[in-house]
Specification:
Layout lengths: L41 H8 L14 H20 E2 L5 E2 L6 H5 L3 H4 L2 E9 L5 H4 L9 E9 L2 H7 L2 E7 L16 E3 L21 E3 H8 L1 E6 L4 E6 H15 L7 E8 L1 H18 L8 E6 L7 H10 L2 E6 L19 H5 L12 E4 L13 H5 L1 H10 L4 E4 L3
Parallel strand pairs: 5-10, 10-11, 11-12, 12-13
Antiparallel strand pairs: 1-2, 3-4, 4-5, 6-7, 8-9, 13-14
Helix pairs in contact: 2-13
């Protein structure tokens, strides 16, 4: 059970809409330009970009601000691949302080952000997925937590942004067979200091793909710098503790703060799972108004219908970017999934019926960048996704939420 203190932020929030857009902000239909003919800026419309209205009117054609932000978060995920030392001990090549500078990341991607925490996980359960050579019980580097700190960046964003980036894998052949079709109960719980009126009760029907959940919750023997000693912790523990710490640091900015998750492939699945987990925790600890958003690239299915409904109910906003030629978003649940209509809901009790979550942005074959469509490995690469997004303008944006 995760037991980390959150700041006591006693807000009189009578609204059930976590993402309620301020009346002074442009609506989704106005986001591309203001009434006076000038172009809207991110700082004015960031709630819409983060999914306040489920990206209605922003996807077909795609809004340029949304495209820019999705690309930016995609490059955060790209950085994880470049920084990972897979031939050594499964660690990051650089320290938290040096990561952005050493990787030479474009200023438009991470300028003004500071890495505050590295995420390590027990990846034994998905060893062939990651292809990690390290068997170190201290865990494998799986991403990082960062926060916007620069004044100019804060002004551009219109808020303070906490970003959680999960590393995935760019190959498919070795690991896809290890995606077992077994869903297991989530059983994610929190110890709260006090009862909250908007506390979200645990949904016993929520089930998660076993490998994803195990990777997220299995413990490792990790050295914690803040206490100067080793402890048995999970990736989940590390993420929750760091978000709680940052919310304590910025407790006076709760109304102008966002939490954004991103990742590619299994990294996208872990981003979705952890966003669900964190939002449950926030809703139980008086911080329900903090927007929690996922920009996922090539995500496999994560859970069942109850999970998809719960993600929507608690207010997690998920934008799934999908290459039609990529096989990974079609698994697990190749046979039993959300595309079966009423049959899928009737068969939801089976431990291998999966449902995608959130809003889907499907690149299909309309983009001029869509080449090598029959090459499964190529179609799954994050660079291909970023190129497709760069050249994307009009397609079909499908909301696959139940």
């Amino acid at each position: 059970m995760a037991d980390f203190p959150l700041p006591s932020v006693d807000r009189n929030d009578s609204s059930d809409n976590t993402y309620k857009t301020m009346s002074s902000l442009p609506t989704s239909s106005q986001i591309s330009g203001c009434k006076d003919g000038s172009q809207a800026e991110l700082c004015d419309v960031w709630r819409d970009i983060q999914g306040a209205n489920n990206w209605n009117g922003l996807l077909d054609p795609i809004n340029p601000i949304l495209k820019s932000e999705a690309l930016r978060y995609g490059h955060f995920a790209r950085l994880c691949y470049d920084a990972f030392d897979g031939d050594g001990y499964g660690t990051c090549k650089h320290s938290k302080r040096e990561l952005f500078d050493k990787m030479g990341v474009s200023n438009t991607v991470c300028i003004g952000y500071q890495v505050t925490k590295y995420i390590y996980a027990n990846t034994d359960v998905l060893r062939s997925f990651f292809g990690d050579k390290s068997q170190d019980i201290k865990g494998v580097w799986l991403g990082f937590v960062a926060v916007s700190v620069d004044t100019n960046q804060l002004r551009r964003l219109g808020r303070r942004d906490i970003v959680i980036v999960w590393r995935g894998n760019q190959t498919t052949q070795e690991w896809i067979q290890d995606l077992k079709d077994f869903l297991v109960p989530a059983r994610l719980s929190y110890k709260c200091e006090r009862t909250c009126k908007d506390r979200q009760p645990a949904n016993e029907g929520v089930r998660i793909e076993r490998g994803f959940l195990t990777c997220y919750t299995s413990t490792i023997h990790h050295h914690e710098d803040s206490v100067g000693k080793f402890a048995n912790v999970s990736a989940r523990d590390l993420v929750i503790a760091e978000i709680c710490r940052l919310l304590k640091v910025y407790e006076n900015e709760i109304d102008d703060l966002s939490i954004t998750f991103t990742g590619h492939s299994l990294g996208a699945a872990l981003a979705t799972l952890s966003a669900y987990d964190i939002k449950q925790m926030l809703n139980s600890k008086y911080c329900s108004r903090i927007p929690v958003t996922v920009f996922s690239f090539a995500s496999p299915r994560v859970g069942n219908l109850a999970f998809a409904k719960q993600v929507e109910q608690i207010g997690v906003k998920v934008l799934r970017l999908v290459n039609e030629a990529d096989v990974v978003p079609k698994v697990p649940g190749v046979l039993l999934n959300e595309n079966m209509g009423f049959l899928s809901k009737w068969l939801n009790w089976l431990p291998w019926t999966y449902f995608h979550v959130g809003v889907e942005l499907n690149f299909s074959n309309i983009s001029p960048f869509s080449i090598h469509a029959n090459n499964l490995a190529y179609s799954h690469k994050l660079d291909v996704y970023l190129n497709l997004l760069e050249g994307y303008n009009v397609s079909q944006a499908l909301n696959s939420s139940p």
